[in-house]
## 1
Amino acid sequence: MAEPVRARRLTDEEGQRLLRLVRRGRSDTVRYRRALIIMASASGTPAPAIARLVAADEDTVRDVIHAFNAKGLAALDPQWAGGRPRRITDDDIAYIVQAAKTRPEKLGRPFTCWSLRKLVAYLADNPVRTVAIGRERLRTLLREHQITFQRTRTWKESADPDKDAKLDRIEQVTTEHFDRCFAFDQFGPLSIRPTGGTCWAPQAHPDRLPATYHRTEGVRYFHGCYSLSEDLLWGVNRRRKGGDHSLAAIKSIRAARPDDRPIYLIMDNLSANKTPKIRTWCAKHHVELCLTPTSASWANPIEAQFGPLRTFTMGNSNHPNHTVLARRLQAYLRWRNANHRHPDVLAATRRERARIRSEKGIRWGGRPLTTAA
């Protein structure tokens, strides 16, 4: 005759945990009943009596006891497997996710991006691991792993060997000498053509601008100067970006602080910004050039100021010539400097800063953000 089924002796930790589950009540019915079965069996209650206690079949009681003897308190959580058994394993899922994130040409396929059909076909016929999966299940699986179909974005990585040193210097002067900091950059090229933008209009009747394929006016460049402490922006349109024009802008910045104390000028690495003549003049008049790293003009504070300039003077415009464009730029600058705390200006500046951070993955005026692995 076979011996009666009985749970093994409980450890102190197991006994305390089972007691807590039983005293907690029926908030979790399955775990509560299984805890009762295990405690009753460990104390010597036979299986038929336990079945009457928990209103269950005797075979169910014995299964729970056998499971506890085999794997401990893990028996409290039944592993139900309703429906059809899984056709793909966790290793298959990991392989699917990795394949979706890999460019097709690296896996021997003659195209640059996956479609669901192409990815399903590759998974079903590849030399590494064969996985049979439907398109809708694949779509759901990728969504669960936060993989979506997105547009590719491009960026330039700065290869400047002095990148960290330059960024450190910019951070230092903007922190310690904020009232002596200025920024300079060229905005353009500006061409005479209708430029789309945004405006209020009747629903389904958008404002329309004429299309043109002719550029008969040439281009101009806006040479902008920005005072960080005073939040003032000024500048002038030029036909080209030359060293003489950059020097004229630097002289206007120096005139904003007529004392002999040093000022700090943040600008990019354009060759016209650091000619020998400019360096000599700056050394003589106590102007320190804080150059941004190569391909990292986002570190220049004036870049955020060009966003509102683009929105409010170039967007939704159709200037007839460069003279009109220059006048309207200057009119905007006068309004902007008189209302530099205007909510529209602040909102446009924030949007431009957010755009720069989003595109470059870099905090404002600092080093790249740590990317998730």
## 2
Amino acid sequence: MARLLLRRAIHGALIIWLVATATFFLLHLAPGDPIAASLDSPLTPPVVRTHYRHEYGLDQPLSVQYGRWLVMMAHGDFGFSFPHRRPVSSVIASALPNTLLLMGVALLLSFVAGIALGLIQARHRGRPLDWGLGLGSLFFYSMPDFWLALMLLFLFAFVWHVFPVTGMFDPVMYPYYGFWQRVGDRLWHLVLPACTLALLSAAAIARFQRAALLDVAGEDFVLTARAKGVSERGVWLHHVLRNALLPVITLFGLALPVLLGGSVFVEKVFSWPGMGLLTVEAIGTRDYPLLCAAVVIASVLVIGGSFVADALYAVVDPRVRLE
């Protein structure tokens, strides 16, 4: 098992380096630079732009900039963000926890809802409930994330006034709230963006879980459990579902890229101050250091999710531990 995890860690580090390198060169081959975007005022003297380009090494050859960037990354230095007027690490430190909170809640909701829906569909296979839930899953699975976010925002915030429109908390009343009121206010603002991401992922998990449950339901040990007098609920929960969860563990690593990609649009729609919103703003301002750092962190999160999924699979399946 240790050898398997070590091999996965080496592969993950190589993938992160390749993604970071490709991102660096693609961004720097595009026209313009952070200095031009931040100091584009005609009142800014050219000598000032030249000074900052030289100070931050933007006038050096691309190979020199790449080598300098790798050394900085190795020391945990992501560079300086001109639009934010502070180090990139400070900008990320304020946004990354918000994205992790949003993704963590969405991941939990999507797997709980997806597994529950898949179980209900499998137990009622071929019945109207199975067809209805299947059509609903397919509807949300094929829906663009930004469109779903806009529709939920329009219905629940503007039409029915159930949830707040944007942000993480009430900017007026939040400073006067007590501890639990602040927690409740943040959770209330979290509902719409988290449910948007969860609906998209839960639909795919439900369809995958249904197929896995139906494959296990015909095994001999399930028939033996029924022959011993185990209740139908006990058969599905303790025998079928327990063995059908193994393939779903693989989806844990695959769900993170989906949630990361969806969070870019969802955070923009709901003005959620996370990495997705930062990335969209960095693209508009040509904030290369922040963009490179965001891509690297996203790669680390995806590789980390795949690593955790491999570890869980090895723990659950003895055959993997023997490799």
## 3
Amino acid sequence: MVGWGVVGQSLAKIFLSRKRELAKKYGFRPRIVAIVDKKGAAINQKGLDLELMLSLKKEKGTVSASGQYGRPDMSALDVIESVEAEAVVEVSPTNIEDGEPGLSYIKTAFRTGKHVVTTNKGPLALALPALTELADHNKVYLRFSGTVGAGTPVLEFAKNCLQGDRLVSVKGILNGTTNYILSEMDEKHITFDEALTAAQKLGFAEADPTMDVDGYDAAAKLVIMANWIMDRKVTIKDVNIKGIREVSAQNIQDAAKKGCTIKLIGVIGETLKVEPTQISKHDPLAVDGALNAVTFVSESAGEQTIIGLGAGGVETASAVLRDLLDIKQNIANKMMT
């Protein structure tokens, strides 16, 4: 595991609390042999004690403080390169500029024959077509459900539930922070700055909210969806992006008079775009708070909308678990053929 923050620790807690169920229902007995955080690593080829790792992080600030298994001298790349494992769970912070260090982590994992489950949007937004090819070349799996919709199965819904149909377009609210800000502006008749401050106080928005309010987070998710669901082979450079900073209280009020609201909508059509859009308050996408909502338009099934929380440690960790189970199932299927 590369990254031992909220998502990594939430996944470990799921492994601990559902150990018996995962083994009985899915034949899944995960053994975490290495954990890397900002200050080093902990390694035990027989499997680390997850309760000990959680308490070390809480009390000492790093898993590398383990007397027996701590390796404060080791980098994430060293660990991925040298430790024997079947899969790497990569949950390091997103960097939309150049995708690093996550991009190097993923490439190194592939090169050493390890499957990858990631929640990191940066590498995928910048290089998903190339990473998919690299995974295929190395005969490993790359999964990333948690990058779009957190625990809400947006990618799986389109890939599995609409299988056989032809997707015409996709549109949706892909960022909970901006949706919360716009909802607050609408409901409380406040300015963008006031709503942003409220979102930051509640932890919905970062101290530097650029990724969210300027539309980059939604654009990254749009790219992942376009590649994975519609085979578009695009990167974030192919998306026209406009954030919500210029949406005024007056814009919101004018929309409300017409029975409409303003939302930051991402669209995969002939082109890819993210921009503040006026929609009817009766539109399925007109969800409030920090919710995400995505409408898939397909030739036969028509419009289908999936709604759910788009962020959260436990929610995102549940997506990582889904991906690990998917990889396990794929490996089992290959062995049977």
